Amino acid sequence: MCEEEACDPRRETSQGEWRVLGVPDGMLFYEVRCLIDGPGWSGPAADLGYRVVLGRSGGYLRRLNGRVTFADATSVLLTRPGDEMWVAHPLGCGDVYSCLEVPAEVLAGRPDADWWLDRAGGEGTADDRFELAHRLLLADARRGIDEFELAERLHGLLTSVIKRTPAGAMDRDDDVDRAAGRRHATLSDHRRLVNRTREVLASGGLGLSLTALAREVGSSPHHLSRVFHRVTGRSISTHRNQLRVRAVLDSLAEDGSSLRDVAARHHFADQAHLSRVLQRQLGHPPARLRRMLTPSSPG
Asked: Can you give the residue ranges of the HTH araC/xylS-type domain (predicted)?
């Protein structure tokens, strides 16, 4: 993730390629492909303000108010004024994300955002149905929708985001672990293991077996599965499938590859397997999703 700057409708800097998708009711909605390449920490970012950052592909390390997380295509981040964030790119450049900047006065009119105005931001995870809504909004914004509709849909997106990043969620996770007798050093070790696992999966490791993945991160399959679920609240299989679904959505929206090739590229058994997973996870078959997500399509 790049340190954000003011965005022109289309702009390339040494840090990233930016594209503004809309500025409805004082909110700023844009997408960025990061161009920073290097494993070292950079930052802190300029005043982050009230922002929603939604991962779409790739990954990077972020240190938000002292806590390190590997952010990937499933990640949701809310920030607020005063947050301090540093970023590092162990996978190199190229991670892509969407960002929504929200003025304080807009948040003040939302009863569900009181905690966000009064406390630090939070981190969460986007499920597949939320991600589809996010991608459809991106596709429609690129096609061009009026500001009234864009504002309404962005407020809907905010509602979903706030539900996924409840107040104090990270602190409560720590409290639960400490109540269970786990030492701070153990918690830190577990988070590092999960961050490394997410990094391996995001860097092309979706085709690895569980045993190979565990070997890559220096763990046993049983220990890795147990720790990953404890830290994230979901299984490695669930997380891996979420990454695969997002990668497929990218392919369907951005290239004309055959569905057979898309299935093979993203480690599905065959085209029928791909269709079953997308139908189950997103409620639509891949051919329909391609029509929905292609910017030149009427929708």
From this structure: 191-292
